[in-house]
Design goal:
Helix content: under 10%
Distance between the termini: 20 Å
Structural class: mainly beta
Strand content: over 45%
CATH topology: Pnp Oxidase, Chain A
Number of domains: 1
Order of helices and strands: EEEEEEEE
CATH class: Mainly Beta
CATH architecture: Roll
Radius of gyration: 18 Å
């Protein structure tokens, strides 16, 4: 069984690498609907449509105009998430995504961070480099 260290991860907006990534997450979900009818003893359910969303945290780099700078609120981007790196044979998730939130955290005794929230506008494709 293969495992990977988080330091291997990277993110690209299209083909542009996002600078100073600290962490990211991706959640894929199925919308579950009830199809229970009167008289049924147990609730029954069906899988409806799928969805995905996630977040990205970076050390703020204002010079990263094609990575961090491309993720403005409302922007639609081609997002490529590489949890194990971007070398030949590595697996990654690709999707068209809308940036739904952008934040900044400025601690007195730490590194300034940017945070980004996103939602996919279609399916997530898992493939290899």
């Amino acid at each position: 069984m293969a495992t990977h260290h988080g330091k291997e991860g990277t993110i690209k907006i299209g083909s542009n690498t996002v600078a100073e990534i600290v962490s990211f997450s991706l959640d894929e979900t199925a919308n579950i609907v009830s199809d229970t009818a009167m008289g049924d003893s147990w609730e029954s359910k069906k899988a409806g449509t799928n969805d995905s969303s996630g977040s990205i945290t970076c050390h703020w780099d204002e010079t990263d105009t094609s990575g961090q700078g491309a993720m403005t609120v409302g922007a639609e981007v081609t997002l490529n998430l590489y949890p194990e790196g971007a070398d030949s044979g590595d697996t990654y998730a690709s999707m068209s995504a809308l940036v739904n939130s952008v934040g900044i955290s400025v601690p007195m005794d730490g590194v300034v961070e940017r945070s980004f929230g996103f939602e996919s506008t279609g399916g997530v494709t898992w493939t290899t480099v």
